[in-house]
Amino acid sequence: MSHPDHPDSSDSSEQPAAPCVCPSIQPLADVADIADQSLDDLADQPTGILARTDDQAPVSVLAAQRMQGNLISMISHELRTPLNTISGFLEIVLDGQVGPLNERQQEFLGYVRTGAQQLTTLVEDILFISKADAGQFLLRLGPVEIPVLVESVLTALHGAAERAGVRLEADVAPGLPTIEADGLRVQQVLSNLVNNAIKFTNRGGVARITVRQDGDAILFQVSDTGRGIASRDLKRIFERFYQSDNAGEAQTGGHGLGLAIARLIVEQHHGHIWVESALRRGSTFSFTIPVAPLVQPQQEVD
After folding, report:
1. What domains are defined for the chain?
2. Where are the strands (E) in the chain, listed by range?
């Protein structure tokens, strides 16, 4: 039997090439080349000093940073299509549409699906942040019913909590006013915090949502009985791509963007977000959303 990496030379028949279902990724290389040429020379420039691009037009470091954000956005967009292709055909295989799979094949392809989902999330998060940096962030304000929002989060994460052996609880104060906010974005923040609580809590632990009114704002809190966060990590926990030392102990991996995005969304609502924690004593993440918007948002994230 011939090894897959060494085809049998006795088989002179040529197999037809499989049709290419993925678009060319050459644009990624082109974008990378542009980034190398136009940005690397600006990395050491002091803020405000003019640099020059390939066409010798003067450009400030701020403009270069904006250009870098646009390049990141372009790369992320280019990655979307092949990722969608991978995920789509993977689901076809897992559904048995191209033939039955044994248990081991199902298991391994499940790992591939998880990896593809994580990479897709990373791409979407990078797109969100790069567009927010470019000022393309519009909150779609509307009436938000707090009990409905909390129930949606509990329903969406019930399965993850059950698999992790973590009990989900919620305590929503009665009579909370309807707030004027971007419901999907606030739900995204709350879901991220609850999902983190599940990941960093051992089996048998508890993740709890508490919501009450605090003056002119609604205070959301997500507490857990998990590992906690070291004091040296608390000041940096909302930084992009920052992961604490115990991040590797999470039940599922992350990429360190979720909390940065949560902070962007909360601050765009003119709210505040913070954390209180200590090692082996669990964590409590809190954020506020004003009942009424203070100012109208400016631009939009797709």
Report:
1. 26-133 (1.10.287), 142-290 (3.30.565.10)
2. 50-52, 58-60, 142-144, 167-172, 179-181, 206-214, 217-224, 273-277, 283-290
pTM over cut 0.90: no
What does the angle CA 215 – CA 228 – CA 268 come to, to the nearest 5 degrees? 40
Contact 142, 183 (CB under 8 A): yes
For 206, the enclosing helix (H) or strand (E) is strand 206-214
Cβ neighbours, 10 Å, residue 49 = 10
Quick one: pLDDT band at residue 169, thresholds 50, 70, 90? very high
Q: What number of other Cβ atoms are within 10 A of residue 249's Cβ? A: 12
CB proximity list for 294: less than 8 A, separation 6 or greater: 270
Asked if residue 73 lies in contact with residue 130, where contact means CB atoms within 8 angstroms, the answer is yes
Amino acid at 3: H
> Chain-wide mean pLDDT for the chain?
75
Residues paired with residue 162 on neighbouring β-strands, in sequence order:
none
* 3-class SS letters over 26-74: HHHHHHHHHHHHHHHHHCCCCCCCEEECCCCCEEEHHHHHHHHHHHHHH
Neighbour count for residue 283 (Cβ, 10 Å): 24
d(CA 34, CA 39): 8
CA pair distance 223, 284, nearest whole angstrom: 4
Q: What is the DSSP letter of 207?
A: E
CA 200 to mean position of chain CA atoms? 17
- Give 11's DSSP letter: -
Q: Is 86 helix (H, G, I), strand (E, B) or coil?
A: helix
Using alpha carbons only, what angle is made at residue 34 by residues 31 and 38, rounded to the nearest 5 degrees? Answer: 145
Report the C-alpha dihedral over residues 83, 85, 87, 89, rounded to 10 degrees: -160
